[in-house]
Amino acid sequence: MSEIEQLQPQPVWQWFARLCAVPRPTFHEQAVREMLVKAAQEHALKTDIDAKGNLRICKPATAGMENCVPVAIQAHMDMVAQKGADSQHDFQRDPVQTQIKEGWVWANDTTLGADNGIGLAMGLAVIFSEDIAHPELTLIVTVEEEIGMGGAEALSADWLQMPYLINLDTEEAGEIFIGCAGGRDASMTLPLNWQAGKLSACTVRVSGLRGGHSGVDIDKNHANANVLLARVLSGLYAQIPFALGSWQGGELRNVITREAQAVIGLDADTARTAVAPIAAFIAAEWAEETQLDIEVLPAEDLTQAATLESTQKALDLLLAVPNGVMRMSEQFKGIVETSSNMGEVKTGTDGLLIHCLMRSLLETPKDEFSLRLAALARMAGANLELTADYPGWAPNADSPLLKLTSTIFARHYGKQPPLQIIHAGLECGILSGKAPHLDMVSFGPTIRAAHSPKERVEIKAVAECWSVLLDLLKSIPPRQ
User: Fold this and answer.
1) Residue 469: which of 63, 180, 155, 137 has the closest Cα?
2) How far apart are CA 194 and CA 349, in angstroms?
3) Domains of the chain
4) CB 464 within 8 Å of CB 173
5) Contacts of 397 (CB under 8 A, 6+ apart)
6) Orientation of helix 308-320 relative to helix 363-380, angle to 10°
7) Mean pLDDT over all residues of the chain?
8) Residues with catalytic function
9) I want to staple 114 with a disulfide (CB 3.0 to 4.6 A). Which of 118, 120, 410, 465 is the partner?
10) pLDDT (tens digit, 9 = 90+) per residue, 114-148?
């Protein structure tokens, strides 16, 4: 038995350990789904898998609760795959290695997958239990949540006929989430003109940033490596024009980029001298990024690079693409209304590719921001593609499930729970669009630095959240 399997509550941590043992990055969920189906079969529970790969497990009510309102517990099975620069972890082959440090469970220089593995583990611990009171119960486990919410988008409304749904995909213990932002992907492609010829080269790299979740961390002043690298190279180009050989920064549009690098047609010594004062200014401005490193390293000679004109256009576009908080909410004080994250930048055969994720509590700001990006693309001579649009989840202050959940929280935490709206994409927004009758709440234990190698989940908060979930399930009222 592993160290975390001995933690309390054991059923939850044992399931989380099993999830950590099976690689499950987005688009590679088959193995973990097969594990869950096998467990359901062993417990003689009905399962369904839809064409997308979403999983439904159904369980009858326990004795005495047959006439209570049916409930769904909902979580997703995929995880963000991010690792430290020196990590050799293979997310498609290697299990996540867990460790306990000062009351928290961490991974070993990779994402932990507590988002949303710990919520899923709670749902599994309930559905496979023998002694937990609950009404008629459906566990809905989606795929592809972390990249575009494709699982929820494909989910049939036939799976959502129950009145109540509990989403376990939020990350602040003691709080109830009643709304979330919607999102839209924006992919911009700038054609580049390439020229052949041997050039001395160097690599300019920005690394060591905190990174984080592009929704919940977007207002925490975390630097974006793509943005900083664009600034460094633009300052360098103003002194010494150079040809861009390649750019690689970030892998996922919903992660604040921690590292980015570009290979340029300039010798390392010359570039290092010119970059030094720019790096010093940036380091002073971003003092909270204590591990920030801006370095110039020798590279193999380039045999092909973008023309000077194309290089200038690429740098101009990268500087001009909006990143970060665009607007704070007027209705909900202290909550981000609209934001954008330049999560991935790279060069390829089509030119310079820029992948952003915009988020907003409202639909119209997404449209307005899309118009701004379209105008910017036209001026730059780039192509813009808008995809993966999903709605937000509008709060319902009169929700019966919310009132019951608030009562349970007050009993456990000794005070009325804060009601929150998260600036991130919960699947609740998509599910409410498919089944407007659904009465939903979302809660979960405290998770920090999700989507980064510093991701961790608080052990005490898991136990508290588990107690709340069990109390809530046994308190579900009879059908009216």
Assistant:
1) 137
2) 10
3) 4-181+392-474 (3.40.630.10), 184-390 (3.30.70.360)
4) yes
5) 178
6) 160
7) 96
8) 78, 145
9) 118
10) 999 999 999 999 999 999 999 999 999 999 999 88
